[in-house]
Design a protein that fits this description.
globular, about 425 residues, two-stranded antiparallel sheet, alpha/beta
Length: about 425
């Protein structure tokens, strides 16, 4: 016999409530997942065509520093510099004693592909942070770096690069003097260098970028704030061997007692055409410009020589260091390295060449670097003694420079970079 039961409204209501709670919880979890993914995923840049030259107002502190008035692209890049590193989901932590690697790049995408590929095979690369410093913004260069998945990677963009300012200093201003113009006769702006030539924005950007990068990496990033150890600096035309990071860690550990007077540790010889001596000994020689590393103590010495760096009439940062900054330290500036190179300079042309497929300066779009099995594993021994190369070849004190750096505006901008992260009265001025 059938019976009529009253429906249980309380149970039905509870079920509906639980369903709502369950769906809401799923939505919250999905939102958290998306936010976390977005924070560590690739940053999608707006098209450069969408960024015009309209100027933003900038802060009083920048006016006091004498930095150029920023345009929208400059502000956009400066904001990007504050983004956290990518790949935090893949590599959530760094080794406690890691050596940060900084890659200084211009606009040679075929070169960059080679160095990035070489870095992907470096033993230990996943335990450290790679910082890529761009000279302005170039979409193809940006995309290559965004594709890196083998370690934490942070991009920084020089917001005052001449490449960012198309109509005003530090780019090309309509009223700028050109070549060997007479400023008085032409009624144009600019100071010629020691050879009578006026500034070329594409040329001066090399030195500006390096100096901005150094000040920013050491003193302007939270990722490196307080980092007292070594930082390794490489460039887009340096092929890095698989044993580079392992060898560098050994060198930095040995330097304090094997070569206490050494300022740095290098991956490669001073002579960029040399693969090393192949001896069973460590080498101390004049500091080179391929795969060089130093600590914060050395950076402080360099930073205190900001005026010497900014006023030397040469557009090359490395020649400026060799000819005026290092000699001002009061003795030989030695670096410690192994007897076999762990990095090779492969560029066949310099400056900002090599951007296009037909002007890439790379044979058949690739680089052939003869590596042996010994180059793939750490090959430096702690029991080796140190051989010192006392003969210092190359640029030194007394060289007057190749020019290209005579404009007072470039010199003052350079000094402004030295003051960006310091009290104004702590950095030498003109």
């Amino acid at each position: 016999m059938a019976t009529n039961k009253k429906p249980n409204f309380k149970v039905a209501a509870l079920r509906r409530l639980l369903s709502v709670v369950f769906i809401t919880l799923l939505g919250v979890l999905l939102l958290i997942f998306l936010l976390r993914t977005n924070s560590t995923s690739d940053f999608v840049s707006p098209s450069l065509d969408e960024i015009d030259e309209l100027s933003y107002n900038y802060s009083d502190s920048r006016e006091k520093l004498g930095l150029p008035k920023q345009n929208k692209l400059s502000v956009h890049l400066e904001k990007r510099n504050q983004l956290p590193p990518r790949n935090l989901d893949l590599y959530p932590s760094l080794a406690e004693d890691h050596i940060t690697i900084v890659l200084y790049v211009h606009n040679r995408p075929q070169y960059l592909r080679v160095v990035v590929d070489s870095l992907s095979h470096v033993v230990g690369i996943s335990e450290t942070l790679l910082i890529v410093s761009h000279d302005g913004y170039f979409e193809e260069m940006n995309k290559i770096v965004e594709g890196i998945r083998f370690c934490q990677v942070k991009q920084i963009f020089a917001p005052y690069s001449p490449h960012v300012f198309s109509k005003s200093f530090p780019g090309v201003s309509p009223s700028d003097c050109k070549d060997k113009d007479d400023a008085a006769k032409k009624h144009c702006k600019g100071n010629p260098d020691q050879y009578g030539n006026h500034r070329s924005p594409k040329i001066v950007s090399l030195k500006h970028h390096w100096w901005w990068m150094m000040n920013t990496v050491w003193d302007g990033l939270k990722e490196t704030h307080g980092h007292e150890g070594h930082i390794l600096f490489i460039e887009e035309d340096h092929f890095i061997f698989p044993n580079a990071y392992s060898n560098l860690r050994i060198l930095t550990e040995l330097k304090s007692h094997k070569c206490p007077d050494c300022y740095a540790a290098n991956l490669a010889p001073l002579d960029v055409n040399s693969r090393g001596e192949g001896w069973d000994s460590l080498i101390a020689e004049k500091m080179g410009n391929v795969g060089y590393s130093f600590n914060r103590t050395v950076w402080r010495k360099i930073h205190r020589k900001g005026r010497e760096f900014c006023f030397f009439d040469d557009y090359n940062w490395d020649i400026t260091m060799w000819a005026t900054v290092y000699p001002s330290f009061g003795g030989s500036v030695y670096t410690l390295r192994g007897p076999r190179t762990s990095a090779v300079h492969f560029g066949r042309c310099g400056l900002h060449q090599g951007q296009g497929e037909n002007n890439a300066c790379i044979d058949n779009g690739g680089v052939k670097v003869g590596m042996e099995e010994n180059d793939k594993v750490a090959n430096i021994k702690s029991e080796w003694e140190v051989h010192i190369h006392t003969h210092e070849s190359g640029y030194k004190a007394g060289f007057k420079g190749w020019g290209g750096w005579g404009d007072e505006r470039d010199r003052q901008l350079c000094l402004s970079f030295a003051r960006m992260y310091h009290a104004i009265d702590t950095v030498p001025t003109s």
